[in-house]
Amino acid sequence: MRIQRNFWRKSVWVALALLCGACASVNRGKSPSEGTRAALDQAAAGRAALPRHSLREWRLEVDTGGFVQLILSSSGYYMLRHGYFYVDQAVGSDKTLMLSEVNIGKYVLRGSQVLMASPAKSTCVSRVGINSFVVMDAAGQALVMDEFATRNFVFDEFKGRKPIPFLKQNMGSLDGSSTLPVDERDPDGRFEAKLGCVQMRENGQIAFIPAGDPSNVVPAPGVAH
User: Which residues contact 206 (CB under 8 A, 6 or more apart)?
Assistant: First the structure.
């Protein structure tokens, strides 16, 4: 009897050791994309909680007025907003204009990279349906844009890659049914935000085309590139 008890006791310990070893190997084998996805997916009580999705925001602003804002949702959707601020001297005041473009689409994680597909919704109609990706690399908490992305999304005089600092994590519900933001202005007339299409011209100048009015092109004075 004692021999049988010892045998069963040893068998249980061996089984537990094998089980723990298997768990450890699974944890060690997690890919960077799985870790990132788990971080994006954590929110209160999980996906069943309301709001449903965990949002993380990265934002970069440069001295010349250019900016880029990237929001990633644990649901697999992104919102990318880029544009510029400038003071409208033409109206004889110091009113600040924010002219920007907003895109909403899907992204996937591949290792340390975030691949953003062409937008499904955009204030710039010409961007919808194009077959292209924007690729950003994770560097700690920051995301790094390549030179192509920086030249198109941040209007500044520089070359090479540029990091977008991590700003915050909050709760929200950005998904496929999300609507695009709308134009807005403050009551005292000192600030106005307009949405449309931010484009680079062949001469390197930046132009802004308001949504729904392709004939009205607003140049970008004072913004370097």
Answer: 84, 155, 198, 199, 200, 219, 220, 223, 225
Q: Are 104 and 179 in contact (CB under 8 A)?
A: no
Which tens digits make up the pLDDT trace of 87-96? 766 655 678 8
Please give the single-letter amino acid code of residue 222: G
pLDDT digits (tens, 9 = 90+) for 36-51: 565 565 533 344 445 5
Query: pTM (2 decimals)?
Result: 0.74
